[in-house]
Design a protein that fits this description.
Mean pLDDT: 80
Radius of gyration: 33 Å
Largest sheet: 7 strands, mixed
Distance between the termini: 80 Å
Structural class: alpha+beta
């Protein structure tokens, strides 16, 4: 309510801050409203008074708004307060805490406010020495380990150059955040891997926030306005509106966050205060406190803030006469927040038959159809994009040089080595730089291969096939840069071992000795630039299809946390980067993929990589498949055995395949022709010339020579059908990327590609089950996950409206399993399937699951159908076999 005050009764309100801050638009909006209330005489001190005159000569006031900024003499202002004792909106002594990030965290921790886990490395005199150990993918501070990604902040809060270091598994590198310069707020440095050592720094665990930060502006203990913005860690591009302002969206605070706002306000004694929230894993954490801050360009906030400041001061000077609606609200103890008008844009009246997309859903398991309308399933399911050929080498090793890597380890457990630190076994290089350390570690394995090949080892070169494989190991490790990053993997699986029986069980296992192991090297499979572009193009198309005419609305929903978007990926590097490239296009981001991957994509190996439950079934199927394809007879006369499901694509493949042995002999002849032509090309090529993705002619020749050697074992005179998919993969890759540059008649040529394609069209789908029962059994033994109930609200006008989207990126095997689930699941005795007859026939005709194949599930709510009626909800399921490569023939 308005209080009629005479000029003599007005409160003298001083504003002691630098002119630049006082004259800002936000501050002017609040001051204008305070003046209009006619309750105050506003006294602005001004720069000349604050800087040039002593505190004794500053104007006298009853209430004071004062806050520090660049150039502000905080100590002089504190002297003034001690001299005149005005009523303070923001405590000045407490503002000193805001200059030190460690002190800010200490105050927050004492107040019970959630903060990220952190440690400090001091490099200042008088501070305790910090024991710091830096590893490839971690830093250890006084015994506390911070795995990458982690955040590095200067202790000095005035230094805004904050760094985020990424693990090698995500591509490595570092993003440096800084105060906005034009449209940039961060920059990514792909080769920067080591922490800074020039001053004191605070290190904290990285919290994945789905790429959005929340800025909270509290005014008093019981009022807070919150806005979301794109995190500068994602791509560093500042989103601005037509007036050049950074785009931010109001968000609703949770009950916990409102309590946090109260605690920050109280703990720092700042009546007007801004701080940063990170929402991660269902919790909220404060990562920074900024002191005096006002929202920019929000008239409703200016009304509320000025009203609260007015009431706060008048309650101090006129407590009996002052009352108002906001005062009663504050006395009730219920925190206030932004009104719903700021949270939504009202839309036109909806037609009676309106239906609304409620969520984008998917599942890797067959579930009863009624579950579709009661649960929020996870994700549209995608295969990764175009990649370089995957390559693998397996070799049984018995040499002590290899087996010594098991020393001190449990001999029953395999060694998986993906990073330099996992390969490290020599203390002599512990102090070496990370890049040099990685070189030495791979050099050790390379030296083992060289030593064994020289004949000084323990007999690994006794057999011709082992000699060939040692040569391959040597060549692979000599490739250096091609065998690195998130695509490298080395495994040593124990095959035979002995134990020392005089130890207890646990000690016995640890002290045992491995006698024979399987060495597995995997490389290649890198996402290409084309694969990245394919993922981005698909995401942009899906955004317009899933949200027609609402592309900007989708981005707004995501920024306001009402778009519940989660993106999951397996641990394979190509899958991770596909997910990141898709996310980049879907949310219209810019910059390098590593920050996007770390900020927005969640690795879920248990859900997306694990196939252990089906491993025995898969092995059994592969044994039977080898028997079928080992027959020297025409399989067209044995369709009931070869294709018990009678699927159209498989029947067509068998009709082309005919006698498998004859077909394999033709295929082998074509492979020999390819390697012969490549040898001729290599002889006339410049060794430094590269073709697609940095590969040289020599490396391409080695790739095809390995396929020729692996496909047919001359000593055993047997074909290895497991290499058929690899041959087809390489043929497709080179025909798409290298054919025009090499100008070879048969590389891979239509004959090789088509012939191998027919065989692969049969083998690949059958690896996931030959009979209908096997296909369903393997498909349903995929990883399981919890389903969560959907919570619907009162249509799109509600500020509680939530759009749920899940995208799940995985490998080809999971897509095949999912195809089988939806192709063969029957829900009742009438043999009703998920798809109608036309769709079932289409599924059966699909011969290949290509890159970026996908299932998309859309759940709709129909408003024209009464609540409680099963027809109120419907599910639209769509499938695409992925990128079309037919044109390359």
């Amino acid at each position: 309510m308005y209080i009629d005050r005479t000029p003599e009764a007005r409160v003298k309100l001083g504003i002691c801050a630098m002119d630049k801050k006082v004259n800002s638009k936000a501050m002017n909006e609040v001051i204008k409203r305070l003046i209009a209330s006619e309750d105050f005489d506003i006294i602005v001190f001004g720069d000349s008074c604050i800087i040039d005159r002593p505190p004794e000569e500053w104007p006298i006031c009853e209430a004071l708004i004062s806050f520090t900024s660049g150039g502000f003499p905080l100590d002089k202002a504190i002297q003034y307060v001690n001299l005149r004792k005005p009523f303070l909106i923001n405590d000045l002594e407490a503002q000193k805490i805001l200059f030190d990030r460690t002190k800010v965290y200490e105050v927050l921790k004492k107040a019970g406010v959630p903060i990220p886990r952190f440690a400090v490395v001091w490099r200042e005199r008088g501070k305790p020495l910090s024991a710091t150990l830096e590893e490839d993918d971690a830093v250890i501070i006084n015994g506390e380990r911070f795995n990458k990604p982690f955040v590095e902040k200067p202790v000095d809060a005035e230094d805004h150059y904050i760094c985020i270091y990424y693990p090698r598994s995500a591509g490595g590198g570092c993003t440096q955040l800084f105060r906005k310069v034009g449209n940039k707020s961060s920059e990514f440095f792909p080769t920067r891997t080591t922490i800074r050592k020039d001053r004191s720094y605070l290190y904290e665990e990285f919290l994945a926030t789905e790429g959005t930060d929340v800025k909270v502006y509290s005014c008093g203990e019981n009022y807070a306005h919150a806005e979301a913005r794109k995190s500068p860690a994602v791509d560093g591009r500042v989103q601005r509106d037509g007036e050049g302002k950074e785009i931010r969206y109001p968000v609703m605070l949770t009950k916990q966050e409102k309590w946090i706002s109260q605690q920050v306000n109280r703990a720092f004694k700042q009546g007007v205060c801004g701080f940063d929230l990170l929402r991660a894993n269902g919790e909220s954490f404060v990562c920074d406190v900024n002191g005096w801050s006002f929202v920019k360009g929000n008239q409703k906030y200016y009304d509320d803030a000025s009203h609260i400041l007015r009431e706060t001061i008048l309650r101090r000077f006129a407590p009996i006469r002052f009352t108002c609606r906001l005062c009663r609200l504050l006395k009730s103890g219920e925190p206030s927040c932004v009104s719903e008008e700021d949270m939504q844009k009202l839309e036109d009246d909806l037609p009676e038959d309106h239906k609304e997309l409620r969520c984008v859903i998917g599942s890797s398991l067959p579930l009863p159809s009624q579950s579709l309308v009661t649960h929020d399933w996870r994700t549209g399911v995608f295969r990764h994009g175009d990649r370089t050929p995957k390559q693998k080498l397996k070799m049984v090793v018995r040499s002590e040089l290899f087996l010594s890597l098991f020393d001190g380890k449990d001999p029953r457990k395999e060694l998986k080595m993906k990073s330099a630190s996992e390969l490290q076994r020599s203390s002599a290089i512990k102090g070496a730089p990370i890049e040099y350390k990685s070189f030495l570690l791979f050099g050790r394995l390379l030296n083992i291969a060289r030593e064994l090949l020289s004949g000084s080892g323990e007999g690994e070169s006794d057999f011709e096939d082992r000699m060939d494989k040692l040569m391959q190991v040597k060549f692979i490790l000599e490739r250096g840069s091609h065998f690195g990053g998130i695509y490298r993997k080395i495994q040593l699986k124990p095959l035979k071992w002995t134990r020392n029986s005089f130890y207890g069980k646990e000690m016995e296992a640890r002290q045992g000795k491995v006698r024979e192991a399987l060495l597995i090297l995997k490389w290649g499979g890198e996402l290409t630039d084309l694969g990245c572009q394919q993922a981005q193009d698909l995401s942009e198309r899906l955004r317009s299809e899933l949200y027609p005419g609402e592309s900007d609305g989708l981005l707004r929903l995501h920024s306001t946390f009402r778009h519940n978007l989660k993106i999951f990926c397996s641990e394979e590097g190509r899958v991770q980067l596909t997910a990141a490239a898709f996310t980049k296009g879907f949310l219209q981001l810019e910059g390098n993929l590593t920050p996007i991957l770390v900020n927005l994509c969640r690795k879920d190996a248990g859900l997306l990589d694990d196939v252990s439950d089906a491993s025995r079934d898969l092995d059994s199927v592969k044994v039977r498949l080898r028997k079928i394809l080992s027959r020297d007879e025409d399989l067209r006369g044995h369709l009931e055995t070869a294709v018990p499901t009678c699927a159209e694509s498989l029947v067509n493949a068998i009709n082309e395949l005919g006698n498998p042995i004859h077909t394999f002999e033709q295929l082998y002849g074509l492979l020999q022709l390819v390697t012969s032509q490549l040898k001729s090309t290599e002889a006339h090529a410049d060794p430094s010339d590269t073709i697609f993705h940095g590969e040289t002619i020599t490396q391409l020749l080695r790739r095809w020579e390995k396929l020729e050697r692996d496909f047919y074992n001359k000593r055993k005179k047997k074909f290895d059908i497991s290499k058929i998919p690899d041959i087809h993969d390489c043929a497709k890759y080179d025909l798409l990327h290298n054919h025009a540059k090499l100008h070879l008649d048969k590389l891979p040529g239509t004959s090789l590609y088509r012939l191998c394609g027919f065989v692969a069209d049969y083998i690949v789908p059958q690896e996931y089950g030959i009979t209908r029962e096997e296909k369903l059994a393997i498909g349903t033994k995929g990883p399981n996950e919890t389903l969560y109930p959907l919570k619907f609200h009162d249509g799109i006008r509600s500020s509680q409206r939530m759009v749920r989207t899940r995208f799940y990126f995985t490998s080809e095997s999971h897509i095949h399993s999912l195809v089988n689930v939806f192709r063969y699941t029957e829900f009742d005795k009438n043999h009703d399937h998920i798809f109608d007859e036309k769709s079932q026939k289409y599924l059966e005709s699909v011969k290949e699951i290509n890159f970026l194949s996908q299932f998309i599930f859309l759940l709709y709510e129909h408003y024209s159908v009464p609540e409680g009626d099963p027809d109120r909800y419907s599910v639209e399921l769509s499938f695409s076999p992925g990128v079309n490569f037919e044109g390359i023939e």
